[in-house]
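I have been asked to look over a protein record a colleague put together. Alongside the sequence sits a line of tokens, each denoting a local backbone shape. I have pasted the whole thing underneath without changing anything:
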Amino acid sequence: MENCTRCKAAQAEDEMILAELAHSENRGIRSLFQQLRDGRKSALRERVVEHVRERLSEEDLGEQVEVPGDYERTITNKMLPKDVEECLECCIQQGTIEVEKGQIRITPKGGRKLANRIKIKLEDLPKRKTGTHKIKDLDYGLDLATSSKKYEIGDAYQAINIPKTLIHSLERNAIEDNHSRISLQQQDIHVYERTFDTRMCLALVIDESGSMGEDKRNAAIDACLALAKFKKTNDKLKVFVYSAEVKEIPVWEVLNISLPGGTTDMRIALQAARISLKQEKGDKQIYLITDTEPNTENGRYVGFEAAMPGVKREVWRCRREDVTLNIVMLDERAKTQELASQLAKINAGRVFFASPSNLGKVMIEDYLSARKSIGATR
């Protein structure tokens, strides 16, 4: 393939093409070629059409066609799979995609670029006012602030500000006894104030069953990329995809994974997330993104009524192990909304009713809000 000379000048177009590939269910070169020939408008199609136009011009074929409409059809009919692959060369050279045996795979570098693109779109989120929040005293993230306060019963002795305590003792004794000596009293003791910067451990559990259409699936992928970009460095993000089975995958691999669809085993998905979070320290949260009710257990279709008891038991186990379950429901049916509310009530978690168009915003707003609530100082 020839090196693309437009890479620097067409950076924005490259990002649009990368996003288009990320949201394409079938990433085979021949499948893309067929979609582009069918006339679906896109940034990639415009680039391929221009590429074919230049090739035809070099072959002097353009002079044989005088009617613009016929010319466009000629270009489309003369499009070849190699034209598509050659127009992806910029992305290949930039390391954002790989092509192996005619299949396109988005690389971690491509995932980060897409995450940056999504982050820019979401950066204008309205800032919420914060009030007082209850903090969990966890074993992770306890830091000493630079400021001090007088000791109160219950303060940790290891937080004593020794230099300030000694100075106060000397000053008090100098005033009371006119002697520069140290004899400690409670009023002399000062302790560093404590800053809680608790770690968050997030498990994003994405429904990949047959009910999740292209728009919902793409919205869930974008939400995952947005969380990966917005999260604090010390926070952890785990990603699970499930239908009748469940897989834990690296964050950026969410762009390439594809389950066979079909039925929904919600219990096994929640179980996998709970077990994975069990050894982590921090504030543990599961975000379950779905649009349907469970109907499968242990790989066997059993229907909603038979599947629900197992799901409820698993939700209760999450609560017992201090894992908060947040349900993001992408469906407006009364049945699914009632299901989400019931499960969140068992776990004392939250429910969000979202649409594909606002899913990313809902997820990031909640994460940032939760981040503030556990990052308080006392």
